[in-house]
Write a structure and sequence with these properties.
The chain is α/β, with parallel strands linked by helices and 171 residues long. It is 36% helix and 19% strand. It has seven helices and six strands, in the order H-H-E-H-H-E-H-E-H-E-H-E-E. The protein has a six-stranded parallel beta sheet, sandwiched between helices. The two termini are 31 Å apart.
């Protein structure tokens, strides 16, 4: 973890995110859909509901922010009506020629998004390494972090987690 933080700190934008204190009264929710929908790897909405309920049980005054690649879908979901902020990736909407995934992510936007994600203490991690690494780096023993199991419904990918993270069924 220390090596990872040291290496990431070489990037000014990420270092800013690491240097800022974490928001202990917020939980970051990561919703990745895009290319995950194409091969049935997206998380079920029940994962997010159960995760939010779990964190609210432990911290009734918690607030939520969402990071997503599917702003329209998130806005339509009733369980997300009370979130404070929705941060959406904006610069990878066009399908790249000869690409098997949705458009190429904008490097600067991805770094800025990751830096913002590092500002949280509590996490509802999507089944994406992007969310996992933010939670791994910034959570501590007093954080509330949820991860899905199975990580993907259609293969045997291990659930990425620290020992004190809470597993929520991905039905």
């Amino acid at each position: 973890k220390d090596f990872l933080i040291s290496s990431l700190s070489n990037n000014f934008t990420i270092k800013k995110g690491l240097d800022n204190p974490t928001l202990s009264d917020y939980a970051m929710i990561h919703v990745r859909r895009g290319d995950f929908i194409k091969d049935n790897r997206e998380l079920n909405i029940s994962y997010y509901k159960e995760s939010m309920d779990y964190i609210k049980q432990h911290n009734p005054s918690i607030k939520f922010d969402i990071f997503t690649d599917d702003y329209k879908w998130v806005k339509k979901q009733t369980i997300f009506k009370e979130v404070d902020n929705i941060f959406a990736q904006e610069n990878a909407k066009d399908i790249a020629k000869n690409s098997k995934i949705d458009g190429q992510d904008d490097r600067n936007e991805t770094i800025e998004t990751f830096s913002k994600m590092l500002g949280y203490k509590n996490f509802i991690a999507g089944n994406s390494s992007f969310a996992f690494w933010a939670a791994f780096i910034r959570s501590d023993d007093n954080s509330y972090v949820t991860v899905p199991k199975p990580w993907f419904r259609n293969n045997s990918h291990p659930t990425l987690k620290k020992d004190n993270w809470f597993i929520v069924e991905n039905k």
